[in-house]
Structures are given as structure tokens and as C-alpha cells.
Amino acid sequence: MNGTEGSNFYVPMSNKTGVVRSPFLYPQFYLAEPWKYSALAAYMFFLIVTGFPVNFLTLFVTIQHKKLRTALNYILLNLATANLLMIVFGFTTTMYSSMNGYFVFGTTMCYFEGFFATFGGEMALWSLVVLAVERYIVICKPMGNFRFGTSHALIGVSFTWIMALSCCAPPIFGWSRYIPEGMQCSCGPDYYTLNPKYNNFSFVIYMFTVHFSIPLTIIFFCYGRLLCAVKEAAAAQQESATTQKAEKEVTRMVVIMVVGFLICWLPYASVAAYIFTHQGADFGAIFMTIPSFFAKSSALYNPVIYIFMNKQFRQCMVTTLFCGKNPFEDEESGTSQTKTEVSSVSTTQVSPA
């Protein structure tokens, strides 16, 4: 084995030289130079100071403006809430650990941080599943003229929490475990060992099957069918031009969110799968650190996509930031008559975006 396994950690370096120490007790500067740990801390600081206000603003603006409280927006607010939890309870501990060169908070907080990191990723994935299914039902109409209302949105939100918790909670109760990974400053599920004490093998198979492969299959199926339906509707002119445009606006936003998720999380999942299927393989600490920390940027991109692609939300946000006034209102008044919020499309057949 080219790594060193302890009772609650796995360091990707052989201890033949005797330099490997517990990542809960000693700086891990033998894995990477101190400046690299400082760079990780700076990166996490950037995600905190940008991700927190953007996600908080998303929640605050929606709460302040009743017209934004639509069914589809409940799912997007759910994402913002999950991101805030991940930032407050996960990113802060990771940043401080990176500043010190090891996970200074001990094994209990490692489980805590690993839980919220996994929770955030799974909440994003299952929220995208709900959005994909909603788009499929609204546009492809397998259930007729189905209206996606508030009750359905709340069911969708509950579903995302159940699925996310069913993925990140088992290690807390003994099915697998959370351990420091990469440069040993952040924690995640144990892909590195087949420790029979924790049944790691069965958990990783469960995680990759139920909480990665299946949701991605659902997403790709829904958007495959959706693409065909949009082309058929456009060819047959079954909907008005404004309705088609509105549906395309919403669909484009959700598709971009899916692409963003894949860009952030697919490298991490691929590296984790490689490590799991090549037990004992020789790999450096940075090999897992870069995709792990890059995946954390997902807490920032979703609200940014939502803000940039939802015109009504942008208008409400500007009104909130400028204490009830919108200095850009005159510039946008010419187009605002023909466009309503993107998020309202899911609740009716004809409201344009």
C-alpha cells in the first residue's frame, strides 16, 4: 500500500520514512508546501465572502418580495439554504484547518464538516432532479396539462432533504466514515480503504449507484425527452410564441445549472471512483485536493446563474439593495411589459418569461 491508514484517517503517503503523522494532531507539510495550504485557505475565504452574501441575498430578496414566492422558486431557495449551511458549517472549518496545515478540530468535527460537504452536493443534485422532472412534466405533458403548484414544490423540497440525508447520514451511524482527504484539511466519505469495520465497500457502491448514477440518469432522460418535445412543439406551433419563449428561458436556466453541477462535481466523483477501484494505488495529496476543493465552488455558481438568468429577480434584488428604488427601471421598462419572471412558467401554461 502506498498510503498510511490510521484508526480514523488515511494519508496518501507511505510511512516507510516515518514522517507520517495524524492529520488531527500535526501539520501535514510533508504532503505539500506550506504556501499551498495558504492558497487553499485563501480560496475558501473567497468562497465564503462571495458565496454567503449571494446565497443570503437570494433568500432575503425572495422573502421580501411576495411575487417571487412561486412554486419553482421554492426549489431554488432550497438550494440557497443548503449552500448557506455548507458555507457556515463546512467552509469555515476547512478554511481554518488549511491555515494551520491540518484538520485541527478533531475527529468529531471531521464528521461534522464531511456531513455538510456531502449534504450540499447531494442537495444540489437532487434539487436538479426535481427541476428536471418539473420541466419534463410541464413541457412534455405526460400527465396532461399538469400545474406544478406550491404543494408539489414542497413535496419536491422534502424529497431532496430525504435523499440528501440518506446519503450523508449513514457514516455518522457507522456505515462507512468521514476522514480527512487530499491535503488533510477537509473531510469526505472514505473512498480510500476497504475497512470491513465500517463496511466502506457497500456504502461507496450504494452512494455511487443511488446518489450519483440514478439521479444523473433521470436528469439526462428528462432533458432528452424535453429536447424532442420542444422541437416538436416549435414545428407544430402548438403553443404561442411567448409561451414557447418562456418555457425555453426556464429550461435553459436549469440546463445551465446541470452543466455547472457536472463541471464542479464530476471531477471529484471521477477521482473518488478511481481511488476506490484502485486500492493502494500511488497518488499524491493534491490529486484529490484539487477536485475536492473545486467541487465546493458549487455553493457559489447556482445563485449566480439564477440571478443572471432571472430578470424579475434581478429587478427585485436591485430594489432591495437601493432601499426600495430601482435606478435602472427606466432602462428596463421597455421590455418588462412582455416578460414576467422565469420562475412563474411552471405554474401555468402561458405566462411568458
UniProtKB/TrEMBL annotation:
Regions crossing the membrane: 40-63, 75-96, 102-133, 153-173, 203-223, 254-277, 283-308
A GO term for molecular function: G protein-coupled receptor activity
Record: glycosylation sites: N2, N15
Keyword flag Membrane: yes
InterPro entries the record matches: GPCR_opsins, GPCR_Rhodpsn, GPCR_Rhodpsn_7TM, Opsin, Retinal_BS, Rhodopsin, Rhodopsin_N
N6-(retinylidene)lysine modifications at: K296
Positions bearing the site annotation: Plays an important role in the conformation switch to the active conformation: E113
Entry keyword set: Chromophore, Disulfide bond, G-protein coupled receptor, Glycoprotein, Lipoprotein, Membrane, Metal-binding, Phosphoprotein, Photoreceptor protein, Receptor, Retinal protein, Sensory transduction, Transducer, Transmembrane, Transmembrane helix, Vision, Zinc
Protein name, entry field: Rhodopsin
Organism annotation: Eptatretus cirrhatus (broadgilled hagfish)
